[in-house]
Design a protein that fits this description.
Elements lengths: L1 E10 L5 E4 L1 H11 L4 E7 L4 E6 L3 H14 L17 H10 L2 E7 L2 E2 L6 E6 L5 E10 L1
Antiparallel strand pairs: 1-8, 2-7, 3-5, 3-8, 4-7, 5-6
Length: 138
């Protein structure tokens, strides 16, 4: 069995944003040479997420509105965590959207269903963040 690891670094200029990282993951898969196996993609920060969904701007806007309704950014005083930072909402949003995805690799390709893409969700941006891609298989 082979193993391949790659770290993506992003510096999102906004506090919150969704980025389609599917092309980055496909590139890492091609670099790995693995034809059959599993691909793990995870956010390496507790205020960011990796998830699978449709690449449709209306849906992304709906995610933003829905998450802001669940865990509004302000007022900062709403959260006990915000004594030293102002990002408690980002921690909660990440919990809802998830930390990682695992995708089967079949014939050297990500084995997606219709419309599935991999996204990075940033909830406390404006600084460098990392995403790990780990691929195992043969």
């Amino acid at each position: 069995m082979k193993s391949y690891r790659e770290i993506l670094e992003l510096n999102i200029p906004n506090r919150r944003q969704f980025i389609n990282i599917t092309p980055n993951v496909e590139h890492a898969l091609a670099q790995s040479g693995i034809q059959e196996g599993l691909c793990l993609v995870n956010a390496m920060h507790i205020t960011a997420s990796v998830f699978i969904n449709d690449d449709e701007s209306g849906l992304h806007s709906d995610f933003e509105s829905w998450l802001e309704g669940l865990a509004p950014e302000k007022p900062y005083s709403r959260y006990a965590h915000n004594g030293y930072e102002d990002n408690a909402d980002a921690h909660l949003k990440r919990t809802v959207m998830g930390r990682e995805v695992v995708v089967a690799v079949t014939n050297g390709r990500l084995d997606f269903g219709p419309w599935e893409q991999i996204f990075y969700g940033e909830f406390d941006g404006k600084r460098k963040k990392k995403i790990m891609i780990k691929i195992i298989g043969e």
